[in-house]
Structures are given as structure tokens and as C-alpha cells.
């Protein structure tokens, strides 16, 4: 009995010292269970949820860099602690702050995915990577005291090494979500690619010779599948195949054949960029006017996966294009261009920060009041304008005289204007013109004949005109080329 009492007394003396450790481990196990159960409780089903979740979640890219920087700093502090013990004490504090940062970043990341309706393999891998990384940091916190006390020498360094490896893998998944899967390998030296067995990444080849495969699917591949593909699927919508495109997403069908107005995909890409439903979202490059016109015409004519060509659209082989000449420096005109931007009339938009890329004449906000006289006022900027958006304006055939001074013009929108085609031959002076949209005008086949001599004109839109379906495709080009 004496021995038993002595043993009990010994346990009681030790219990108060061990209780904080037990509580710590129990709290850690409970927290780990919560993190592991989170994806099963709030499933990433591709359905968008409350906007406030997404608002908070968008702070994830900012918050996530805090624990990353702290975790990378810890091995440096631990090593330097061999020479300065105070730094080793600081490493423990930094590790604790890093764990709190991991919890915050993980929470915000989950709010972002759940709120925006993100799903897909890449999203799921990034999510589980974040959970595993956070748990690994927690384990580092728990086992570090055994290392600093000298009781267990190898467990903490091994755990910290695993944590750093998890950090690298998870960060790569997150970077792939933001910048694309090939962001790190696009410009990798070929020798290094071969050493890592990565090979060369090629663009997805079209499955057939159809208009969809050659012109519509590449648009989705370049602008949409980053968020609506196998790796990441927002709103339950995938655009990486024709079948999945036609199945639609959580909001229903996004393509309604023969009805562009009811096709949700077309509606979203034509919303004002400031609209919260505008696509592509998150600051990604929007679709060009030409790409939108292709999608609209494709839907309008049945959204077929097999049709070789569409009525009213002529697209010729671009392999024989003459090189485009760079635009001159318009820097001296910048005060006047900025004044236009702050005014109420038409705007001149810079294509890029490089003056040689030219300007775009934008009349969208004043289309109803913009006519031939207003176009004439832009003549002093004519040599620098590479695209003129005159669709749905009040311009008439008189505009062709002014447009001949736009010597670097490459794209001209005249859809739904009063143009009849009289004087259309004057556009043959524009040697760099590649895109011409005459849809919804009264242009006839007779007025189109002079355009056959334009070597660079590759995209001609004529649907809803007297010239449809007759077009350049009905006759061979003078040099033997045929439109397709």
C-alpha cells in the first residue's frame, strides 16, 4: 500500500506540470479536425455564394504572403541561433505568428473559392495544400520545444523541411490558378525542360476544320478556360469542349442557338467592364470586338460544331499578310488626347504604353450623336489611329473621304450605320486594313468588288446586308487566292 500511495503522489505532483501540454495537444487535435472537416462541411460545388464572402476572400493574395515570408525566415533564424541564442528564441515567436497568418490566409482563401463558386482539380489541390501546410506549421509549433530542450533532435528539422516543401507545392498551385499552369515553364530554357521531362507545351489543336474549332474554341481556350476548365471551374461552367459548353453551368444554358440575345455567355462578355458580372473577370483581358462578333454570328447561325463557314463572314488566309508598319510618335498630342478622355465626347484610347502601337477611336458613349462632322474633327490624329469604332453611329458614305487619311487603320467598325457602300472603294487606299464590319448596313455586292484588291483585308462582316450571302467568297481573288 505504501508503494501505491507513493506512486499516486508522484503522478499528482507531475500532473499540474503536464496539464498545459495536454490542453495544447487537445486544442491542436481539435483545430486539425476542424480544418480537415471544412471541405466536407462547405463543399466547393462551383456555385457562387454571398458577395461579401468573395469581397473578404479577395484579400487572400495579400494575406498569404505574410506566413510565406515568415516560414522562409524560420530556418535562417534557427541556423543563426547557433551563434546568437536570442535569434533562436525569436524563431519560436516568428513560428507562432506564421501559424496565425496561415489560419487567416487559409480562411480568406476558402471564402474566395466558396464565395466565387470556384471548383476544379487545381482549386481543390490548392485548398488541400493550404490545409496540409497549415497543419504542418502547427506540428512544427508542437514539436519544436522537444528540439530546443534537446530531448528529440530530428523530429522538428524533418517537420520543418516537409513544411517548406509543402509551401513550395501549394504556392505553385496558387500561382497556376492566377497565372496559368505553364507560367513557370513558358520561358524555361529548352535544355532545362528536357532535363525535367517537361517537353514543350503546345496550344490545343482544333479537332476539325469547322468554324467553331478554328475560331470559337481558340477564343475560349485563350480567354476563358483558365477559370472555366478542368483545373478551375467557376459557376459550374466549363468551356474546354463543345459538349460542356452546351451543357452550361449553375445558371443554366449559356449558349442558345439562333438567339444571341438570350445566350448568357454573350451577354456577360458584352456588359460594361465595370459591371460585377462582366466576363472575363478579375482584370483579365476582355474579348476583342472581332472575337465578340465571331461568337455572336456563330450563335446567330445555329452554334454548330461542324459548320465550315458562316454566312456574312469572310476570313481569308493570313499567311501572306504584308507586314504592318509601326505608328509614329503621338507624344506631343498627349495633352489633347487626355483632354478628350476627360470630356463628354468620343475618346482616343491608347492601345498600350508604346506610342508605336497606336490609338483606338472609341465612340460607344456618344454613338447616337457622332456623325461625319465629328469624325472630321479627328483628322489631326488620323495617322496614329489603328482602330475606329464607328458602329451604330450616324456616319454616312461621306465618312470614307475622311477615313482615307487614317493611313495606319487596321480595324474599322461600321456595323448598323447609314452606310450604303457608295465611295467604299476609297478604302482601298488603306493598305493595312485587316478587319471591316459592314453588318446591318445597305452595302450591296456591287460596292464590294473593289475590296478584292486589298491584300491585307482578312475579316469582312456582311450579315444582315443586301450583300449576304453573296460575298468575296463568290469570286476568286486577282492573285488566285480564294476567301474561305
Q: How would you characterize the overall build of this protein?
A:
The chain has 484 residues and is mainly α. The relative contact order is 0.06. The protein is elongated, with a radius of gyration of 31 Å. The C terminus is likely disordered. A seven-stranded mixed β-sheet has the order 1-7-6-5-4-3-2. Strand 3, helix 14 and strand 4 form a beta-alpha-beta unit. It has three domains: 176 residues; 100 residues, no CATH class; 144 residues, Leucine-rich repeat, LRR (right-handed beta-alpha superhelix).
Distance between the termini: 103 Å
Which consecutive residue ranges, at least 5 long each, have pLDDT under 50? 11-17, 198-207, 470-484
Share in helix: 40-55%
Major sheet: size, sense and barrel closure? 7 strands, mixed
Radius of gyration: 31 Å
Helix/strand structural class: mainly alpha
Number of helices: 16
Shape: elongated
Order of helices and strands: HHHHHHHHHHHHEHEEHEHEEHE
How are strands sequenced across the largest beta sheet?
A: 1-7-6-5-4-3-2
**Overall mean pLDDT:** 79
Whole-number total of structural domains? 3
Strand content: 5-15%
Summarize the topology.
Blueprint: H1 2-41, H2 51-57, H3 60-63, H4 65-80, H5 85-116, H6 121-148, H7 155-179, H8 190-195, H9 211-223, H10 242-247, H11 264-269, H12 289-300, E1 313-315, H13 334-342, E2 347-350, E3 359-362, H14 372-376, E4 385-389, H15 399-403, E5 411-413, E6 435-437, H16 445-448, E7 459-461
Helix pairs in contact: 1-6, 2-5, 4-5, 4-7, 5-6, 6-7, 9-12
Amino acid at each position: 500500500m505504501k508503494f501505491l500511495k507513493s506512486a499516486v503522489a508522484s503522478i499528482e505532483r507531475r500532473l499540474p506540470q503536464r496539464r498545459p501540454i495536454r490542453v495544447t495537444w487537445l486544442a491542436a487535435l481539435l483545430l486539425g479536425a476542424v480544418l480537415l472537416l471544412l471541405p466536407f462541411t462547405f463543399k466547393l460545388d462551383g456555385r457562387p455564394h454571398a458577395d461579401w464572402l468573395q469581397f473578404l476572400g479577395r484579400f487572400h493574395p495579400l494575406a498569404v504572403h505574410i506566413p510565406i515570408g515568415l516560414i522562409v525566415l524560420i530556418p535562417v533564424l534557427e541556423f543563426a541561433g547557433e551563434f546568437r541564442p536570442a535569434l533562436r528564441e525569436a524563431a519560436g515567436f516568428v513560428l507562432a505568428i506564421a501559424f496565425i497568418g496561415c489560419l487567416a490566409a487559409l480562411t480568406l482563401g476558402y471564402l474566395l473559392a466558396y464565395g466565387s463558386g470556384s471548383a476544379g482539380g487545381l482549386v481543390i489541390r490548392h485548398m488541400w495544400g493550404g490545409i496540409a501546410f497549415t497543419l504542418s506549421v502547427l506540428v512544427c509549433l508542437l514539436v519544436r520545444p522537444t528540439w530546443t530542450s534537446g530531448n528529440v533532435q530530428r523530429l522538428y528539422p524533418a517537420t520543418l523541411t516537409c513544411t517548406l516543401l509543402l509551401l513550395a507545392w501549394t504556392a505553385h498551385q496558387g500561382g497556376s490558378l492566377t497565372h496559368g499552369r505553364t507560367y513557370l515553364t513558358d520561358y524555361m530554357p529548352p535544355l532545362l525542360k528536357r532535363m525535367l521531362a517537361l517537353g514543350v507545351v503546345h496550344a490545343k489543336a482544333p479537332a476539325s476544320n469547322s468554324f467553331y474549332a478554328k475560331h470559337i474554341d481558340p477564343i475560349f481556350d485563350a480567354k476563358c478556360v483558365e477559370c472555366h476548365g478542368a483545373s478551375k471551374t467557376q459557376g459550374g461552367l466549363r468551356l474546354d469542349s463543345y459538349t460542356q459548353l452546351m451543357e452550361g453551368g449553375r445558371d443554366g444554358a449559356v449558349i442558345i442557338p439562333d438567339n444571341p440575345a438570350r445566350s448568357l455567355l454573350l451577354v456577360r462578355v458584352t456588359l460594361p467592364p465595370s459591371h460585377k458580372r462582366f466576363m472575363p473577370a478579375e482584370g483579365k483581358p476582355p474579348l476583342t470586338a472581332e472575337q465578340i462578333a465571331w461568337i455572336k454570328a456563330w450563335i446567330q447561325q445555329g452554334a454548330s460544331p461542324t459548320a465550315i463557314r458562316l454566312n456574312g463572314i469572310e476570313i481569308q488566309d493570313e499567311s501572306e499578310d504584308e507586314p504592318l508598319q509601326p505608328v509614329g510618335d503621338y507624344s506631343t498630342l498627349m495633352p489633347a488626347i487626355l483632354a478628350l478622355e476627360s470630356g463628354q465626347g468620343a475618346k482616343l484610347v491608347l492601345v498600350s504604353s508604346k506610342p508605336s502601337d497606336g490609338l483606338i477611336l472609341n465612340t460607344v458613349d456618344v454613338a447616337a450623336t457622332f456623325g461625319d462632322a465629328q469624325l472630321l474633327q479627328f483628322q489631326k490624329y488620323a495617322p496614329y489611329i489603328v482602330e475606329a469604332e464607328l458602329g451604330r453611329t450616324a456616319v454616312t458614305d461621306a465618312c470614307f473621304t475622311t477615313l482615307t487619311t487614317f493611313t495606319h487603320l487596321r480595324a474599322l467598325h461600321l456595323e448598323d450605320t447609314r452606310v450604303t457602300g457608295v465611295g467604299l472603294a476609297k478604302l482601298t487606299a488603306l493598305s493595312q486594313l485587316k478587319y471591316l464590319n459592314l453588318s446591318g448596313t445597305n452595302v450591296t455586292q456591287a460596292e464590294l468588288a473593289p475590296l478584292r484588291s486589298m491584300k491585307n483585308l482578312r475579316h469582312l462582316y456582311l450579315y444582315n446586308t443586301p450583300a449576304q450571302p453573296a460575298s468575296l467568297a463568290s469570286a476568286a481573288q486577282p492573285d488566285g487566292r480564294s476567301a474561305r
